[in-house]
Write a structure and sequence with these properties.
By secondary structure, the chain is α/β, with parallel strands linked by helices. It has helices at about 5-10, 40-55, 85-100, 100-105, 125-140, 150-155, 180-195, 240-245, 310-320, 370-385, 395-400, and strands at about 30-35, 60, 80, 115-120, 145, 170-175, 180, 200, 205-210, 215-220, 225-235, 255-265, 270-275, 280-285, 290-300, 330-340, 345-350, 355-360. A hairpin with a 4-residue loop joins strand 14 and strand 15. It is globular, with a radius of gyration of 21 Å. Bound molecules: flavin-adenine dinucleotide (FAD) and pyrrole-2-carboxylate.
């Protein structure tokens, strides 16, 4: 069923009791052309573009919990493409541009809000870094600019630009960056996958990867054995666990990254601000809550909560730049397990196991990448080889020392 204003009016006549389920409770079939492990944004987008762009529709998406319950439903939803290196700018900008029309494409309101993202420069070092990024972005066709403190204040009046420790010296500004509703992105893709006849199977944990003669043959799950011709592992913080099942190792560390929200207040900020020196980032949700995030834990773990230290540090850091938040009550806090690579760039790659592919390593910054990453991963799974968007993100770069260093653009201290 197409969602529309007309349909809402029609459904109102029957008390809104006639809406069909957005996706069903599928029972696994014995075999699929492709299985995607992980129903986060990246897994669902991979399945969607497999169907839409490549006509591969006999697909199951297996999720051990509920869809979007991993990092996709836990992030602070910042979307931008102001990365330094060419391969990163290409995939993040592809993604950002797909976000522009995603609601129309999925016929599902993902609430993309291109309100503008600024990354504050609060040291001379950051000024030089962001000037360099702005120049690189100009060459890459990504629209960003370096703006002076007066413009920062104009765009975001609640910022204290004068200090005390770190005055604002300018900012890297991307006017078409912004936010989207995170779980709506997962729900929108899931609904379209189901519409194409794919099986979205929740509460179905993959516990083993089966293979013969060096090629994947299927997976063992808590709902039984399922065969497949191709397997895509898209499980973010659990990538190392799945890679272990498939018989290879990854250069990934899993750590907790956390966020918190304040009580709702009246609209006071209509841009997204990342303050990477004092270390915190903030935006205001449509409900009025201030959405706040800080750094990742300094140790590896799988607990989806994060340490208390970071809550205090993040809020303390932000109070310097936004003194008005000192009077806010914080409502709730949560964490997600992010998958970090050494160069802070993702892995979209074939693996040592034949017909088994992996998408991971988005670390602290993969929400913004969901549509572009799904597009690129689907292309790789369908053709057996990475296409132009994914070509530089192969696992072999770690062996060859061909890093794509994005530790500054990642914006989150780790
Ligand atoms: P996930 O959404 O984590 O999905 C992976 C899924 O795999 C999970 O649902 C999990 O249950 C499932 N799974 C795991 N093991 C198995 C198994 N054995 N069998 C079946 N299923 C399995 N990015 C941004 O761009 N902007 C931000 O502002 C931003 N803020 C963030 C803030 C926080 C607090 C966190 C934690 C992350 C943030 N990120 C941000 C990063 C972003 O959330 C992630 O990079 C992105 O969501 C990863 O998506 P995914 O689909 O790969 O992973
Ligand atoms: O990648 O923009 C980002 C981000 C902000 C907060 C966490 N990640």
């Amino acid at each position: 069923m197409r969602y529309s204003a007309f349909e809402i009016a029609r459904q109102a006549l029957s008390g809104h009791k006639g809406w069909p389920r957005a996706w069903g409770d599928a029972t696994p079939k014995p075999r699929y052309d492709a299985i995607v492990v992980g129903a986060g944004g990246h897994g669902l987008a991979t399945a969607y573009y497999l169907g839409k762009n490549h006509g591969v529709r006999n697909v199951a998406i297996l999720e051990k919990g509920w869809l979007g319950g991993g990092n996709t439903g836990r992030n602070t939803t910042i979307i931008r493409s102001n990365y330094l290196q060419d391969p990163s700018a290409a995939i993040y900008e592809k993604s950002r541009s797909l976000y522009e029309t995603l609601s129309q494409e999925l016929n599902y309101n993902v609430m993309f809000s291109p309100r503008g993202v600024m990354m504050l420069a609060q040291t001379e070092h950051e000024v030089r870094g962001y000037l360099r990024t702005a120049q690189a972005n100009a060459l890459q066709g990504v629209q960003t600019e370096f703006i002076p403190p007066a413009r920062v204040k104009e765009l975001c009046p609640i910022i204290e630009t004068r200090g005390p420790r770190y005055p604002v010296l300018g900012a890297l500004w991307q006017a078409r960056g912004g936010t989207a509703r995170h779980d709506a992105v997962a729900w929108g893709y899931a609904r379209k996958c189901a519409e194409m006849g794919m099986d979205v199977i929740q509460q179905c944990e993959v516990t083993a990867v089966r293979s013969r003669n060096g090629k994947v043959t299927g997976v063992t799950t808590t709902k039984g054995e399922i065969d497949c011709a191709k397997l895509a592992i898209v499980v973010a913080g659990h990538s190392g666990v799945l890679a272990d099942m498939a018989g290879f190792r990854l250069p990934i560390e899993s750590v907790a990254l956390q966020a918190l929200v304040s009580e709702p207040i009246k609209p006071c900020m209509d841009v997204v601000v990342m303050a990477n020196t004092v270390h915190g980032y903030m935006s205001q949700s449509d409900k009025g809550e201030m959405v706040i995030g800080g750094g990742a834990d300094g140790y590896n773990n799988y607990s989806q909560r994060g340490s208390f230290l970071h809550i205090e540090e993040t809020v303390r850091a932000l109070v310097e730049t936004f003194p008005m938040i000192s009077r806010l009550k914080m409502l709730r806090q949560w964490g997600g397990i992010v998958d970090m690579t050494g160069d802070r760039s993702p892995i979209i790659s074939k693996t040592p196991l034949g017909n088994c592919f992996i998408n991971c390593g988005w670390g602290t910054g993969g929400f913004k990448a969901i549509p572009g990453s799904g597009w690129a991963t689907a292309e790789m799974v369908a053709n057996g080889e990475p296409g132009p968007l994914a070509a530089e993100f192969g696992l072999e770069r770690f062996r060859e020392g061909r890093f794509i260093d994005e530790s500054v653009a990642a914006g989150v201290a780790h």
